Amino acid sequence: MKRTNTFDVVPQSDEDEELLRRLLDASAALWNEINYERREHYADPDADVWEISEYRGRYGETLGASTVQQIERKNREAWRSFFALKKKDEANGKPGYWGNAEDGRELRTYIRNTSYTVEWGEYSRLEILVGKDLKDEYGLGHRERLRLEVRGEPNWKEYDKQGRLELFWDENAQSFRAFQPVTIDNSRLAHPLADETAALDIGANNLVACSTSTGTQLLYEGRDLFERFRETTREIARLQSLLDDGRYSSHRIRSLYRRRTRRRDHAQDALARDLIERLHGEGISTVYVGALTDVLDTHWSVEANAKTHNFWAFRQFIDRLACTAEEYGISVEVRSEAWTSQECPQCGSTDRTTRHRDTLTCPCGFEGHADLTASETFLRRQTDVARPMARPVRLKWNDHDWSELPRSCSNEERTNPQVASVGR
């Protein structure tokens, strides 16, 4: 079973940081050269996009032959993905460049699994292979590797096999980071503590509303996150409007796209981890997730589309959630949640209820938090729930983790029930 360790990488001196930056910059230059050649071949009907020049002679003494090979392989994978998406009419463009020398390259590299080692302990460290020229210039021995400090606790200290290491400069966090794919034995996975169930209602104002058969309710707030996402999107649109005719992007625009994506992915990664750990403690064995297509079918709008597709990247999040849940032996199933956000839990009406922001009201007298009510209704459609729901726990993102707010939200938040019902 494949998993990924994520950790920060810290050079131990200014000289080490300079060496690392040069290594990453040379990797970006190599990627750009390979990608340029492939794009030229793609435009030429008589050329073969898979036939490229030999780059080990020019870059091997800087990066090491194995790293040159990995970057060539990664670029080949990017083009294969492009052709696969193109066949489905889903491609958004050919593989792009990692910046340029004038505006600044995207500092990134890929290290073969046999060309690096990670040691975990009180003083964790990463050692990576560099080319002969850099070794000579920075005084490294013939068999010596660049040694870097590692910060952060890995999810998987023990594994059967490590994969290709991705090492890059994170502009948003202003730090070097690494992704280490690992293969673990299934026996290392945890198991559910009981046979309880949970149901999730996914949105953007509140990212996840969760109800469990144990009576727990969790609410992950998302307004601030989505607003920052939207602000970045507006800035990207503004910069695009200033481009000269024939230009579609710039280093600044690409940087904003990356920052927007990484900020979203970081919050979603942390949400999946926090949620699944809490559910494991509740004895949850199955998590039901509502399909967002139901929302778009019944409440389509420009804003709903932006929140569900552009911000949420729903399939990506479900894959992330399922991957994390698998560590704890929890299964994730996507089911229809049609009309749960309009259904009154007291009388069952869907056409008489009114939704105003976070509140759902019904003429029968019911008034409650709309998303939490939807998750509870969704849960009751999947399983028998005998326990009453406890006071909800509200969580907010602080750019590092999800923390409980001092005062949990009430399930009886009141607002103006006369406002016409609107979609999520």
Q: Give the count of helical stretches.
A: 10
The proportion of residues forming helix, as a percent range, comes to 25-40%
Distance between the termini: 37 Å
Mean pLDDT: 86
Shape: globular
Q: What radius of gyration results from the CA coordinates?
A: 25 Å
Number of strands: 20
Structural class by helix and strand composition: alpha+beta
Residue stretches low in confidence (pLDDT < 50, at least 5 long) are 294-301, 408-424
What is the percentage of strand-forming residues? 15-25%
Question: What is the helix/strand order?
Answer: EHHHEEEEEHEEEEEEEHHEHHHEEEEHEE
Largest sheet properties:
8 strands, antiparallel
Task: Explain what the structure shows.
The chain is of the alpha+beta class and 424 residues long. The protein contains 10 helices and 20 strands. The strands form 4 sheets. Strands 1, 4, 5, 6, 7, 8, 9 and 10 form an 8-stranded antiparallel sheet that branches. The protein has a 7-stranded mixed sheet with strand order 15-14-11-12-13-19-20. It has a 3-stranded antiparallel sheet with strand order 16-17-18. Helix 1 packs across helix 3 (65-87). The radius of gyration is 25 Å and the shape is globular.
Summarize the structure.
With 424 residues, the chain is of the alpha+beta class.
Question: Any key phrases for this structure?
Answer:
424 residues; alpha+beta; eight-stranded antiparallel sheet; seven-stranded mixed sheet; 10 helices; 38% helix; globular
